């Protein structure tokens, strides 16, 4: 008889800025869905995992701390299966994400990566980067200033100086794109894809959706957006994903942010079963599934 155990690692609150409840909700719903499919679900928070480790070979994780990611990578190297992969989580850190998306021709804003210890004028010498977005390059956004819209060079210098003081050595600068801001959620190995206009429903983490403002309803090809997002997920090696894109007036779609396992807040009741399916497909397969017909119907 095989092992039907699976370990879930929840996200530490510090890595859920203004979304602690939402992140906990999708994690708990996923645990419930996995149990309904017949799996023996064990749960740890990041601290418990770091202190005690695990012998459970199948893992699903919303973890974000660098220490946890390092430990999970070690387990993956030993043959443990982890969704999302710790390597994928690392790929969603801003500098690596930007490089991977651009190098793999995923539609993305023009971007430069800068060293915060150098003279900013060396980089921002073209008008195309003012106004722009400055984002910490080494990690996910935790503080409001980790993703900042700047209107002029003085604001840019202030943000870079703040990064330098905080010990953030690298930053990503994206051109500002004009158009409709669209938030999306997707699950690999299924057809689940959900999108909406975050500003219009007051869905926000740091209030930055106000920069692009109320949507104009610019027409775009939803299947094209889903294809772009799925390609980005494959490049970054994440199965459960979300993010933001801008739809320009001509319908052009470009990704401006991509996250491993976000909250799925407006669609979590529906998404949880699809997330469970992806976890199962990428961990233990169907061996212990109670209702194979149900999970196969999740197209």
Written overview of the protein:
There is one protein chain. This protein is α/β, with parallel strands linked by helices. It has three domains: 5-85 and 266-296, Rossmann fold (3-Layer(aba) Sandwich), CATH 3.40.50; 110-175, ATP-grasp fold, A domain (Dna Ligase, domain 1, 2-Layer Sandwich); 180-263, D-amino Acid Aminotransferase, Chain A, domain 1 (2-Layer Sandwich), CATH 3.30.470.20. 33% of the residues lie in helices and 22% in strands. The protein has helices spanning 20-36, 46-52, 66-77, 86-91, 94-103, 153-166, 222-236, 268-281, 292-296, and strands at 5-9, 40-44, 58-61, 81-83, 111-115, 132-136, 147-150, 170-175, 180-187, 193-196, 240-247, 253-260. The protein has a four-stranded parallel beta sheet with strand order 2-1-3-4, sandwiched between helices. Strand 3 (58-61), helix 3 (66-77) and strand 4 form a beta-alpha-beta unit. Helix 1 (20-36) packs across helix 8 (268-281). The chain is globular. The two termini are 29 Å apart. The model has no long low-confidence stretch (mean pLDDT 89).
